[in-house]
Amino acid sequence: TRAIMPVHYGGCPCRIQELREIADDHDLLLIEDAAEAFGASIRGRKVGTFGDSAMMSFCQNKVITTGEGGAIVTDSREVYEKMKLIRSHGRLETADYFSTTAVMDYVSLGYNFRMSNITAALGIAQLNKVEEIIRMRRADAAYYIQRLKAEVPDCVISEPPEDYFHVYQLFSIRVKDRDALMQYLENKGIMTKVYFSPVHYTYFYCSQVGDSYNLPITEKVSEDILSLPFYPGISRDDIDYVIDSMKEFYGVA
Questions:
Q1: What is the dihedral of CA 98, 99, 103, 108, to 10 degrees?
Q2: What radius of gyration do the chain's Cα atoms show?
Q3: Does the pTM of the predicted model rise above 0.85?
Q4: Where are the beta strands (DSSP E) in the chain?
Q5: pLDDT by residue (tens digit) across 169-213?
Q6: Contact indicator for 181, 248 with CB cutoff of 8 Å
Q7: Does residue 129 have an active-site annotation?
Q8: Which of 12, 31, 111, 133 has the fewest Cβ atoms within 10 Å of its own Cβ atom?
Q9: Dihedral sign, CA of 201, 205, 210, 212?
Q10: Cis omega before residue 196 (within 30°)?
């Protein structure tokens, strides 16, 4: 084992402080997958600052978006310099490549992972209103939770500890008869999605590592989990329609 790479799933901080202690005790790297948790925090400390490095995603359905793309954050100068090379063809840039006539050297293997100025501008504009985006997400999630708890008995809602600040990039619950419920909701024009299937079920993982893994908790959760329609500014009428349709399915309408 060289590293621990936990996921802050759906906008909720994982138990990253405990994982930090384990990583330190065993001299392991801690790499945070914070793709879904931009703005989340524990006791006021932002996710992405506990690990040796962290990944953020700006995909179209994330907390803020540039359409596609993302960022890596780190307090390691060595990692920072390596990432700069990898993202731009392994090119050692001494100035802006497109505004200089200087000849630049290629010192390592790299790729074209640069974000364009246009997409970066989209992200910067959203940074100025990210607190409002998160406030809307949390308010919409609170309404979902209030109604589900009171009216839909066949679901499990995972709520974080009080000092964990959840940004609700997804609104995921665990439900009884998940697949049948998905089909019922689809027939009523409601799209739901499973985030995510277990990695150890995938063809690539099995072909590289084998298929002998037994992860019963992961497998059980993957059979029950369901992400409901969710985005900043979703209307109360839309949420009501989703929940009322779920009540119909479970016979509690």
A1: -40
A2: 21
A3: yes
A4: 3-4, 29-33, 41-42, 45-46, 53-57, 70-74, 91-92, 105-106, 155-156, 164-165, 172-175, 225-227
A5: 999 999 999 999 999 999 999 999 999 999 999 999 999 988 888
A6: no
A7: no
A8: 111
A9: negative
A10: yes
- Residue 75 predicted with pLDDT over 90: yes
The total number of residues shown for the chain amounts to: 253
**Predicted confidence (pLDDT) at residue 253 exceeds the cutoff of 80:** no
Rounded Cα gap, residues 68 and 62, in angstroms? 10
* pLDDT tens-digit map of 119-161: 999 999 999 999 999 999 999 999 999 999 999 998 999 889 9
Residue with tokens 């900043």: 232
Per the residue annotation, which of 62, 193, 220, 247 is the catalytic one? 62
| Confidence (pLDDT) at 104 | 86
Taking residue 211's Cβ as centre, other Cβ atoms within 10 Å add up to 10
Residue 38 has pLDDT above 90, yes or no: yes
End-to-end CA distance of the chain: 51
For residue 5, report the phi and psi dihedrals to the nearest 5 degrees. -130, 85
DSSP 170: S
Domains along the chain? 3-127 (3.40.640.10), 130-250 (3.90.1150.10)
The residue to which tokens 């090379």 are assigned: 85
